[in-house]
Amino acid sequence: DGVTEVLAHRSENLRDKFLEIPCSEDYGSHRRFAGCTPRKCGRGVTDAVITREEAERIRRIAERGLSLGGSDGGASILDLHSGALSLGKHFVNLYRYFGDKIRDIFTEEDFALYRDVRQRIQHRIAQVFGISSSAMYLTKPTFFSRMNSTGAKTTHDEYWHPHVDKVTYGSFDYTSLLYLSDYSKDFGGGRFVFLDADSNKTVEPRAGRVSFFTSGSENLHRVERVQWGTRFAITISFTCDPEHGIGDPLL
Fold first, then answer.
1. Tell me, what DSSP letter sits at residue 198?
2. Which residue numbers are catalytic?
3. What is the pTM of this model?
4. Which residues form the Fe2OG dioxygenase domain (predicted)?
């Protein structure tokens, strides 16, 4: 992997760390939205937006939801918006599959916490990139992930390949990850790696840590394979295009 620098250590408590990098040309081939489309690009890490206690509460939402299914491979997904849940080698719709029983699993408070956390992350991204929070829209897919060292059974389980979010998902302009468990304590491997021409920069997950970045090819990245334990995170992404916006999930 060449030279690797640690952008954020698990042991650090970072108020805010931001690295500005030149924007790629990706945004030129998409429609531009005033007050939102990235003109300043980069990546940031903060431990000051979500508390560890809130991260633990959110992880419990993920654990309860994922306990209903789970992939046969090492990566399981739960999307509260669409209802997508990994089950074996496939996905099911959580809401259709479990019907009214879903209220025994999730509460209104769970969804209110999810909404509150999403709003705080959105405001912080807007603040750092100097854009308007009201010009950003939540976009899909936004999902919980649970990763362990089980071998991949389908291509959906192969989370470790380098990729660019704007290329993979199209609508993404700003990506964020909220980590819900601790690197080297809850799991080994599983660090987030930005792949730069000169060196790689890693983010070591820590419960409550938010990593966020512009979604173009200036931020090519991958996740290391998890070697042991279980890594929980939630990906929350934003678009500047209102046509690709989605609402918060409702119970």
1. S
2. 231
3. 0.96
4. 140-242
